[in-house]
Specification:
It is a single chain. With about 140 residues, the protein is an alpha+beta fold. About 35% of the residues lie in helices and about 25% in strands. It has four helices and five strands; from the N terminus they run βααββααββ. Strands 1-2-3-5-4 form a five-stranded antiparallel β-sheet, covered by helices on one side. The protein is globular. The relative contact order is 0.21.
Length: about 140
């Protein structure tokens, strides 16, 4: 698929979602797998925009690309915002998920959902670029 470049603002989330939905449909993913992929990409894209650009006082773009090889769909999301490796952050513990909503701490659930919603999630930092890679096995 052709690469989509959008501004690093919340207004771009709709275009990113449409891109992921189109990629999922092209790869023949069922609706549930497509939804999980869209949610995963949306959560990370939102974090990039809010934390990597807005809170860091930076402006930039996001590039999203999709490739389908054999039975695997890979979505790559790149940005030049502040370094943010979701693997370095504390993820939500199972005990936290079992607590009533009013007792849970805020934060971390989006990254948890992103990592759980795909078959493989990778993060790379190359130069000034963050690269988030989402892999779904197509059945």
């Amino acid at each position: 698929m052709e690469t989509l470049t959008v501004s690093g603002t919340l207004d771009s989330l709709g275009a990113i979602a449409k891109y992921v939905i189109k990629a999922a449909e092209s790869a023949g993913l069922d609706k549930k797998a497509g939804y999980k992929l869209r949610l995963a990409v949306d959560e990370i894209a939102t974090n990039i925009i809010i934390h990597g650009y807005e809170e860091a006082g930076l402006q930039g773009k996001l590039e999203i690309s999709g490739t389908f090889q054999e039975s695997t769909l890979t979505i790559c999301l790149e940005d030049t915002g502040a370094k943010y490796d979701p693997h370095e952050k504390v993820t939500v513990a199972t005990e936290e998920l079992n607590k009533p909503l009013e007792e849970r701490t805020i934060g971390g659930l989006g990254v948890y959902l992103a990592m759980q919603g795909v078959d493989k999630y990778l993060y790379e930092r190359e130069g000034d670029k963050n690269r988030n890679i989402f892999v779904i096995n197509c059945k």
